[in-house]
Amino acid sequence: MKTILWATLTANGNYAQSGPENPPKKEALADFAAHAKAAGNFIVGRRTFESMAGNGGGGGPFADLDIVVISKSAPEIPGVIVVGSPEEALNYLQQKGHQTAFISGGADIHNAFLGQGLVDEVIFNVAPVLEGKGLNLVIDKDQYRYKQVELLDCKPLGGGVVQLRYAINL
Ligand SMILES: NC(=O)c1ccc[n+]([C@@H]2O[C@H](COP(=O)([O-])OP(=O)(O)OC[C@H]3O[C@@H](n4cnc5c(N)ncnc54)[C@H](OP(=O)(O)O)[C@@H]3O)[C@@H](O)[C@H]2O)c1
């Protein structure tokens, strides 16, 4: 099973945060929905899922998808599967026969997958916004490391959003 990490970055390279005053671009949201639909699933951290749920969440365009929420502490949540680790999320989707696991955030979850070398491909949508102090994506939280990646594609999505796609596990 292939694993794809999808994230929005800011134009100055932060891991983009969003909120009522700085909502995600509609082009990025449409791209997220298209990739999640193509995969038939998405994996999400408990905090991001709660903010999605507050905005109408797992229903609507996502009603037919396998939604996997990662949490060490959350009890069962109706309509989604709750697992305790990135590996369990991947095992669950593999057992259900998915060809692709789509990892949608947030920061802790993305960094957990990257840190454990569980990502085959990343899709970065660079949004036309600058941030101050913020979040970042790293392949190692404790020490400097680097990893060469292969650029697979680069295209504008509209609304000033540019999509970069890289293969990681070369
Ligand atoms: N740029 C983007 O594409 C993007 C996408 C989504 C969200 N975001 C932003 O990201 C931020 C939210 O991210 P976040 O880091 O606060 O939250 P998150 O990654 O959505 O969720 C964190 C929670 O996931 C669980 N978790 C994390 N790592 C785990 C592990 N290794 N094993 C088991 N459970 C684990 C824990 O849940 P429990 O506490 O329940 O144990 C933890 O509290 C917001 O600012 C949001 O706007 C950005």
TrEMBL record:
GO BP terms: riboflavin biosynthetic process
InterPro entries to which the protein is assigned, alphabetical: DHFR-like_dom_sf, RibDG_C, Riboflavin_Biosynth_HTPR
Domain (Bacterial bifunctional deaminase-reductase C-terminal): residue spans on this chain: 85-162
Superkingdom, taxonomy of origin: Bacteria
A GO molecular function held by the record: 5-amino-6-(5-phosphoribosylamino)uracil reductase activity
Protein name: Dihydrofolate reductase
Organism in which the protein naturally occurs: Paenibacillus oralis
